[in-house]
């Protein structure tokens, strides 16, 4: 009998169990939302702890990196953030992040210390827009521009990371991103092969 009571308590306090539903409006694709965030990075997930991930920022697109680890807090209670499983260890992403600047009442549970709203000066990522793009090789995919709401993996042609960086820097338009995301894959492959040949990567 006692073990059943303990099991019920453990399940009630279990990390990842939502006690309220997330409710938010879709804020737009990456091209719409990134400018309103504090930090945009191309990074690799190097550690997972509780409902947070640590990133190795391989390329800073905008903002200032923290002096210590770059920690991003994910789904917790009713806060509209992506699930932890969205970002596996070793995966690479372009992320538009918001800095956590104040404590939130009820944001820390001593019974689950590794699961919380997040620490001040760490970062959080929203689920309510195209706040992340999957990065593989030299290109990214995701809800980049003019994509369906709530679809974080729409069908599209991968777009070069260097083009994303240029957009964040204000050097190219969202129209250029849209054109690249709708480019014929065969033409893109030909262009990449030509670039590699000119660099001397191929015989």
Automatic annotation (TrEMBL):
Residues 1-20 form the signal peptide. It comes from the Bacteria. Keywords: Signal. This is Delta-aminolevulinic acid dehydratase. It comes from Halioglobus maricola.
């Amino acid at each position: 009998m006692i073990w059943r009571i303990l099991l019920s308590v453990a399940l009630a306090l279990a990390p990842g169990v939502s006690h309220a539903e997330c409710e938010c409006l879709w804020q737009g694709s990456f091209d719409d939302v990134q400018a309103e965030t504090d930090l945009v990075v191309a990074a690799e997930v190097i550690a997972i702890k509780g409902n947070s991930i640590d990133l190795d920022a391989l390329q800073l697109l905008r903002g200032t990196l923290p002096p210590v680890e770059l920690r991003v807090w994910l789904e917790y209670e009713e806060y509209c953030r992506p699930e932890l499983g969205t970002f596996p260890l070793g995966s690479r992403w372009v992320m538009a992040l918001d800095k956590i600047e104040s404590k939130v009442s009820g944001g820390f549970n001593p019974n689950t210390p590794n699961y919380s709203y997040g620490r001040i000066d760490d970062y959080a990522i929203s689920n309510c827009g195209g706040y992340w793009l999957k990065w593989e090789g030299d290109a990214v995919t995701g809800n980049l521009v003019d994509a369906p709401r709530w679809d974080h993996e729409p069908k599209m042609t991968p777009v070069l990371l260097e083009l994303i960086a240029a957009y964040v820097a204000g050097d190219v338009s969202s129209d250029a991103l849209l054109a690249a995301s709708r480019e014929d894959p065969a033409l893109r492959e030909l262009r990449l092969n030509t670039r590699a040949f000119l660099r001397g990567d191929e015989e």
